[in-house]
Structure to design on (159 residues):
């Protein structure tokens, strides 16, 4: 499609990819780079896109989970698995609140990130005003790490 070939299209694609669970900015930054964006374009767009769902997850996910549980046994099992994953990873966060949530989100490994951090915050009944700064700081840090790996490794290999 022609829209994805334009600067606005590539920025929008990067923004949307950064909102997707699992991929988040860890996938959006390298994909944006692969599609020709400069680091100063890809990083802020990916960070903002990654943060957009966070307050909604913290505020609404428990209600959404409760509603999903009533729809089918399969959805009930899915919700249970997601909650168990979040609760299993929440022990670290529970002990140290802000810093635990920050480090959990900041380390760009599979199963970490803004979505899981927001889910953990919701499971721990953290308020958005307490959880969002830690998650945002973690996303900024993860963005810096991913950018370094994306651009630093590329410069070393192809520089």
């Amino acid at each position: 499609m022609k829209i994805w070939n334009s600067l606005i299209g590539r920025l929008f694609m990067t923004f949307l990819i950064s909102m997707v669970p699992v991929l988040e900015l860890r996938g959006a930054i390298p994909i944006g780079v692969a599609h020709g964006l400069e680091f100063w374009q890809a990083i802020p767009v990916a960070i903002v896109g990654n943060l957009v769902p966070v307050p909604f997850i913290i505020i609404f996910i428990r209600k959404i989970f409760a509603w999903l549980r009533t729809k089918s046994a399969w959805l009930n099992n899915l919700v249970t698995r997601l909650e168990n994953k979040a609760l299993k990873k929440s022990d670290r966060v529970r002990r140290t609140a802000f810093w635990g949530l920050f480090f959990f989100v900041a380390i760009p490994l599979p199963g970490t990130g803004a979505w899981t951090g927001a889910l953990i915050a919701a499971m721990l009944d953290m308020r958005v005003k307490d959880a969002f700064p830690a998650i945002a700081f973690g996303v900024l840090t993860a963005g810096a790490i991913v950018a370094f790996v994306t651009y630093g490794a590329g410069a070393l290999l192809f520089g």
